[in-house]
Amino acid sequence: MSKTYYVWPLGCQTNKSDGERVATVLEKLGYERVEDEHDANVIAVIACAIRQSAVDRIYGKFRAWEQRQQAGDLTTLLTGCVLPHDKQKLTPKFDLVFDIEELPKLPLLLAQTNVEETVNLRDQMAYFDIQPIHNSKFRAWVPIAKGCDKFCTYCAVPYTRGRERSRPSADIIQEVKELIAKGYKDIHLLGQNVNSYGMDKRRADGTSEELTFAQLLETVATLPGDFWVRFHAPHPRDFTADVIEVIAKYPKLCKQINLPAQSGSSTILRRMNRPYTREQYLKLTDDIKAGIPNVSLSTDIIVGFCGETEEEFADSKSLMEYVGYDMAFIAQYSVRPGTVAARRFEDNVSHEVKKERFRELTDVLEQTFMVNQQPRLGTVDTILVEKYAKDHWLGRNQHQVTVEFPAPADANLVGTFQQVKLEEVEPFRFKGNLK
Ligand code: SAH
Ligand code: SF4
Ligand code: F3S
Description:
Layout: E1 4-9, H1 13-28, E2 32-33, E3 42-47, H2 52-59, H3 62-70, E4 75-80, H4 84-90, E5 96-97, H5 106-112, E6 139-143, E7 145-146, H6 157-161, E8 165-166, H7 169-181, E9 186-190, H8 213-221, E10 228-232, H9 241-249, E11 256-258, H10 266-271, H11 278-291, E12 296-303, H12 310-323, E13 327-332, H13 340-344, H14 351-373, E14 380-389, E15 392-396, E16 402-405, E17 417-426, E18 429-434
Parallel strand pairs: 1-2, 1-3, 3-4, 4-5, 6-9, 9-10, 11-12, 12-13, 16-18
Antiparallel strand pairs: 7-8, 14-15, 14-17, 15-16, 17-18
Helix pairs in contact: 8-9, 12-14
Bound molecules: S-adenosyl-L-homocysteine, iron/sulfur cluster and FE3-S4 cluster.
């Protein structure tokens, strides 16, 4: 039988990055990647627990998979973010469930489940030493920390990813150097709270055996080469002035920051266990705008959190209007079993009201996006080109805004930086021409 695999990462970039490492291990075992899950003998699901809809997408696959599993044609693996509540229900449906930290042991686990006959134990590696097989030739995700200690009351991540642990900076820098040498142009540093990097390595006297986040950014930004660096996700509480200074100083650090607000209401923020007020968040965005010229801000925001009143929602709306984001990841609150919010508060904002609030914030976002882009019209911007689709080329500027422009289909531009004059704008994309 042929050995083929398909990796299905749901959720955030962390999962996409983990999926690339799962692919590495499967390829070491002789599996070949396929682009369609129907052609795969092994399907590896990298699950996301952030919202019920992400979990439901997995349930939606079972009927089709079961027939193939029974016919002995398919092995299914489950890893990634799974809440204990779902684990019970999902486990019987999969051939193998493993914690992503156990990835180095995957060959052994497959042998124990009789999927693989033998394994060479000497091939085992530490998780971070598994070199990912990158899906892109120009964009790469580099994990700098794992887990989360913040325990926002709505959030599943602390229960699925465990405690916060920083990866040694020497390893991060080595991985980035290798990526640059291979021609990677867009390096994304990843963690649930990237800017608390190194804090877990603090000694009792307050010193740390690790770099601070600002020092790590500076080290990466001063490596030679032609590339961009960005990071996800910073936490507003730990966003220190030295990080603002470093971003302003180095051209390789993109002037784009996703700063999750989650709500614009101080009372909701308190219920969410987000340790800042509306005023502190707004002051931080003012400081960022003052310190980093031409900065582009985006955010994550939740509508319809337990007990969110019209006034509290209006605070989120006015926060978005005040800050003027270029992008926002607006989520309708979804109860996560086992979280503090699920135990303590009632999910009492109706589905319709959540939808309406989502729509209202989307309208605000469109307006702030359009206002922000006006001064950029007519300027020439550097675009990292991603693909050719439907008669034009598509790329993104350092603000992550999509830019489309015409050029011959065979121009071979993927993964190159191009100078493009921005000539028209519509919600969430520019149209322009090569300079
Ligand atoms: N660590 C990051 C984000 C992690 S999760 C941070 O602190 O901002 C990604 C986003 O999913 C969150 O920013 C939040 O907006 C959203 N999210 C998390 N839990 C959610 C829930 N229960 N319902 C709806 N959206 C949620
Ligand atoms: Fe979830 Fe909050 Fe941690 Fe972000 S900081 S991963 S929202 S608990
Ligand atoms: Fe990411 Fe979802 Fe896990 S958003 S960290 S994959 S719960």
